Amino acid sequence: MRVSKRATSAIALSAAAALVASGCSSGDSNDDAAASKDGAISVHGVQPENPLVPSNTTETGGGKVIDWLFTGLVEYPNDGGAPRNALAESINTTDSKVFTIKIKKGTKFHDGTEVKSKNFVDAWNWAAYSPNGAQNGTFFSDIQGFEDTYTTDPDGADGPQKAPPPKADKMSGLKVVDEQTFEVTLAAPTAVFPTKLGYSAFMPLPDVFFTQKPEEFGKKPVGNGPVKFVSWEDNVLIKLTRFDDYNLRDKMKVKDVDVKLYQDETAAYADLLANNLDFMEVVPTSALAGDKWKTDLGDRGLSTVTPSTALIAFPTYDKRFQNPKLRRAVSLSINRQEISDKIFFGTRKPADSWANPLTPGAKPGNCTACKFDPATAKTLLTEAGGFTGEMVFYYNSDSSHKDWMDAVAQQVKTNLGINARAEGVPTFAVFRQNINAHKMTGPYRAAWQQDYPDVENWVNPLYVTGGSSNDGLYSSKEVDALAKQASAAPSLEASHEAFSKAVELVDQDVPSIPIYFYGQQSGHSEKIKKLELNNVGELDITSVEL
């Protein structure tokens, strides 16, 4: 499960949250523009799990950098408006099954080559060809011919069998019409398909990508976005700089962006307070008590809500966690309100639904497993045959998760009598590598930050068999069937209703545990005169003015 995914969405923010134009600027506008033009900013980050290939990045550490390096067909405005064309000149369909996509002429990759329709078609086909191992490969399952390019391992990564070779290496539903036009034929009408196209899995790749190994490209990526790659020192720094040939709406105002890769949020916060770091997306939980962060930062602090949810996921590939009654018992033993009040001082809301309620199509209050009911939890644990041994809850310790994960483990221990504790993994990158290798031996911290504004994004990647972020390997034929029906619904309204039925089954199986809905407290340095957040709370680097 992507631990805070990223990409923007189109849910409305309050004006106060969307505009963080603080402080300052009564100075001469020409001086301000000059300061921005040659200026540099530093942004808090963590070591990406993988080299930076868009269709193989499913987490925030690398994801936010990819979002800055690449521009897709559509974009999701910061002000909460509907998705709008970015690189696309037009996206036309008469039946929501066949789409004709025309891209803008004259846009460039960072190596100077022109972005053409084949760069999308080739990138999508590469991602959908399962031997390439792209983690986001299943995002292309709507397209006709995907089933011929993508095969799955019949008995899991540790089994003796291997995935059968695909019948084809290209999807039949993709066709280049000319240098600026391509046609996409879906397996069935899919009303949400155009909305998806701003997610990073759908980014174009330059010709040079196909001349080298993906990991080589990913360590020195060539994108088409407003900034281009300069260098990457593992666990220290990723350097980006303005791409002066960028000719779309969101051009950079500052010149250089340093993404500092921290292993300790406390150290990052200290740098923020000392103006040695220019933007920190989430302040440490230690700064929330008594609104300390407000005192520390003054008008450099900002607060918003985002369509993101913190969860705990189960490794259902581990036999100890395959009984849904056990999983439900664990969920019912957790007092989410107490965690919100005592750990986050009310800045997070207890989760009560499977999709974040800020998401179009999401139904509030549909997580019956999210209730606090220790008596029922004990009964279910007994019916499940109890739990033998230690239940270890894992989290990455380079971000502020220790306190609330300790609280979860203590509640499970107190309310169920299970020998439970929480344990930190030093870095986010290693944590994600363990998850993707299916090596987790206990429940683990996860989060979902939507990729595009539709409830479909909270079901297909997470709970459909083989979904791109179904890291616990949960599988239900009934959920799969309902999700397939929902995806092919003729309208968004019909799709949302069908997905709600799939979610009812997920609620009974409890493959993961929603814990809280994100609230976000961020901060910036004194030298930043203006900035905006996208509505998942990440910095819009093209908005920054000094």
UniProtKB/TrEMBL annotation:
<dbReference type="InterPro" id="IPR039424">
    <property type="entry name" value="SBP_5"/>
</dbReference>
<keyword id="KW-0732">Signal</keyword>
<feature type="domain" description="Solute-binding protein family 5">
    <location>
        <begin position="83"/>
        <end position="469"/>
    </location>
</feature>
<dbReference type="GO" id="GO:0015833">
    <property type="term" value="P:peptide transport"/>
</dbReference>
<protein>
    <submittedName>
        <fullName>Oligopeptide transport system substrate-binding protein</fullName>
    </submittedName>
</protein>
<dbReference type="InterPro" id="IPR030678">
    <property type="entry name" value="Peptide/Ni-bd"/>
</dbReference>
<dbReference type="GO" id="GO:0042597">
    <property type="term" value="C:periplasmic space"/>
</dbReference>
<dbReference type="GO" id="GO:0043190">
    <property type="term" value="C:ATP-binding cassette (ABC) transporter complex"/>
</dbReference>
<feature type="region of interest" description="Disordered">
    <location>
        <begin position="150"/>
        <end position="171"/>
    </location>
</feature>
<dbReference type="InterPro" id="IPR000914">
    <property type="entry name" value="SBP_5_dom"/>
</dbReference>
<dbReference type="Pfam" id="PF00496">
    <property type="entry name" value="SBP_bac_5"/>
</dbReference>
<feature type="signal peptide">
    <location>
        <begin position="1"/>
        <end position="27"/>
    </location>
</feature>
<dbReference type="GO" id="GO:1904680">
    <property type="term" value="F:peptide transmembrane transporter activity"/>
</dbReference>
